[in-house]
Amino acid sequence: MVQFYSVYDILPAGDEADVNVILAKVPEVVPEGVAVQKDETGIKPFVFGMMKVTATFIIDDIEGIGEKLENALRSIPGVDGIECVSTTSI
What we know:
There is one protein chain. Helices cover 23% and strands 42% of the residues. It is built from two helices and five strands. The chain is globular. The model has no long low-confidence stretch (mean pLDDT 96).
């Protein structure tokens, strides 16, 4: 089975969003067929002193899984947006 290695930036909704809470919720919301690479997922500097969550996933090649993952990440309270930074097949 083909799998994909994907990196996402998860952007907080302003200063009031707690990136630690967002980071903790990521493994809880991912759909079946997606594995969080915990050692490659964390909080990183963003802009103007803000922080963002950068999350790395191994994603099975299942119809519609990318959309399910993105919808799950957007559903986390305090998330303003997400951006797929890179994807490659493994």
